[in-house]
Each structure stands twice: as structure tokens, then as C-alpha cells.
């Protein structure tokens, strides 16, 4: 069951090493923390309003004993109202982060922040994303959406709740779709470029705008610094949700194919990672909004991200913890605004309310996804093998 959202008044991170008395050590640590909070907030009213979080690390083999010890704490140990929010095999990124803290600065600081949080946001975009460019991309997306709807209808697929995977398009849950527009875009060459149907020519205004952005957008310096200036290819797709689409489940676009990413800098002793053996991104995604979306749009919805969740593969499946602890950030974007995120980051598309409309009255919320990846990486899990448009 979903836990109620509460504000953390205090966050104390502590570690207990492996020992034969691990359970008593954890109980003592919780008791000491409780006494500290009593001293800090002597007023009973204030004390009752607090929701304190203590992150304790101990061997998974002793989890049963530790939890039993907490549940049966002796009367002289002041541990009250303990609620176990989550147990997991790795550190949880529990520092609350706001959209303002994730703001892209378009400076050399961006790379450090990106490696730490796995996501950066530019709510209004930049001059690269002009009204003309956004208009051309909307037309391109609509052309592809109409063609896909017709081809799906010929196969008796309504696209409401069915799950399907074709070479060009896949469903992403009820009324949510991901359709490839072009692939193989490189910084300076066209040898691998492929334009997906129904678009066939690079002289189409929408295709030109797409390729130009993929190569020259404001986020390119960051992509170059993360992946290498001439070491990436880009695949572009239209990701669109229609009215009535529900919240997605938490997921990542790609797996950890090397070591973990890490989510703290080397000089932070609480990370327990030290920057050793951590893998830099092999793929970076950009969501470019074609419609205003986010919490301020009264039901249009957007995408919610868990900053720091790109850190370890073991975090997959723990997205509900981000909801319970209010750790996610739902991006608020204007048309032309964008989010840059690590391919391994946990995120989910938010619901598009049945009665909501986009700013232009549409029943469809659209964005362009640019997936920049190392040249050695091959996408094999997010789409099917057979063409929607071939009989």
C-alpha cells in the first residue's frame, strides 16, 4: 500500500558493521538517535509532528534478527513508532532534491551535477528551441502518430490497453507510446542515418529540425563531455501520452552494463563508494517538451525522476520508496524545455487526466526523446523486430 507522503524533519545516516551483535548495535543506535531528537525538540507538540529518518546499513544475512530486535526492544531502550520504509541491498539516495537544484547552468558545472544526480532540467529550454522548430517538430510527430494509428487499426489494435512491440513503435502502458523517428545521427557524418517511415526524405522541415537539434542543441556540450565528442550516435523518437493514460511504473531505459554509476562525489565520506570502479554513462537521454507539462498544468502531467537512482542496479524495483519518501521530482516544462538524464535513471511518466487538455486544446501530450549512446551500444530491448508498416 502506498505510504502517506511526509516531510522529513531530520535525516541521519549511520552505519553498523557486520558483527555477531549487529541487532543490538542497531537498536542502540536508534535509541541514541531518539534521545538526541528529544533533546533537540523538547516540546511534545513539536516532537509528535516530526518524522525522522535513520538510514542504517547492516548485512542482509542479519536482517531478520535486526527487525526482530527492533520490534521487541526492552523498555529501557527508547525506540518508539519505528516504521521500516524499505530494506534493500545497496545505499538509497535519500537526499530530497528540488527542480531548482537540478537546473542546468550551461556551464562546466553541469557535468559534475549530472554525474551526481543523473538528471538536469531546463524548464524553458534555449534559443535553439525556437517556436518555428517546435512547430516543425509537432507537425513531424503528428504525421507519424496518424500513420501509426492507421497501421495499428489495420491490425485491429486500438492502442488503448494493448501491449505491442514493433520495430518502429512500442506501447509503454495504457495510452502511452514510443515511436522512432530517426536513428544513427552522428555529429558530423550521415553514413548511419536512417529516417523511419512514414518520413522518407531529409528535406522534410520536421526531419531537418530534428537532425539539427540532435547535433547542435544547447545540451550537446554536456553530451560531448559525457560520451566523447565523436563517440556517439543518436536515436530520436516521439513519446506521447493521450488523455486517460495512468501513471507508469518506475523503470529505467537501460541496464547497468558495467560498474555502478555512484551518486556521491569522492570527498563525501557517507557515500561508501569512493569513486572507485564507477562507470560513466554509456547513454544519455533528452526529453524535449512539445507541450507545456508538469504539476502546474492541472492534470496534463509530465515525467517524474528519482535523482541519484542511476547509482546502483539494485535500486531497480524500489521506486515506490521514492514516492513514499517524496524523493522524486516531476519536471515542470514549457514547450521547448527539456530534461537530460542518465539512461540508467529510474523515472516514470505521470498520468494525463481524462478531463485535462494541453495548452492548445489537444488530447495528446508529446515530447521528443533524443537517446545519445556510445557507438558500441545496441538497443535491443525497447522495441520489437517486425515492422508495423510492412505486411
Structure description:
The chain has 391 residues and is of the alpha+beta class. The chain is 24% helix and 19% strand. The protein has 8 helices and 13 strands. Strands 3, 4, 5, 6, 7, 8, 11 and 13 form an 8-stranded antiparallel sheet that branches. Helix 1 crosses helix 3. The protein is globular.
Secondary structure: elements and pairs:
Layout: E1 10-15, H1 22-40, H2 44-49, E2 52-57, H3 63-71, H4 109-117, E3 119-122, H5 131-154, E4 169-171, E5 176-185, E6 194-195, H6 205-216, H7 220-227, E7 232-242, E8 283-289, E9 303-305, H8 319-324, E10 329-330, E11 338-342, E12 347-349, E13 364-374
Parallel strand pairs: 1-2
Antiparallel strand pairs: 3-11, 4-5, 5-6, 5-7, 7-13, 8-11, 8-13, 9-10, 9-12
Helix pairs in contact: 1-3, 5-6
Structure described in brief:
The protein has 391 residues and is an alpha+beta fold.
Question: How many DSSP-defined strands?
Answer: 13
Gyration radius, in Å: 23 Å
Termini Cα gap: 45 Å
Number of helices: 8
Main beta sheet: 8 strands, antiparallel
> Could you say which structural class the secondary elements and strand pairing correspond to?
alpha+beta
Shape: globular
Residue stretches low in confidence (pLDDT < 50, at least 5 long) are 1-13, 263-277
How helix-rich are the residues, as a percent range? 10-25%
**Helix and strand succession?**
EHHEHHEHEEEHHEEEHEEEE
* Rounded average pLDDT: 80
Strand content: 15-25%
